[in-house]
Design goal:
Layout: H1 15-50
């Protein structure tokens, strides 16, 4: 039986995988911000400008 070095694959994370996770997080944050802005300016702002919320 040969003495082979045992590799620990748990410590070898792909930087591509980490970058993809970050890209997905940024994309989801951007979509959330865009949706929030849409709701704010199309529903909340008209009510404020007419004085219905004060």
């Amino acid at each position: 039986m040969k003495n082979l070095a045992q590799r620990d694959w748990r410590n070898h994370r792909s930087s591509k995988k980490a970058a993809q996770g970050l890209d997905q997080t940024v994309a989801l944050g951007g979509v959330t911000l865009a949706l929030f802005t849409y709701i704010l300016y199309h529903f909340i702002y008209p009510l404020l400008s007419k004085g219905l919320l004060w």
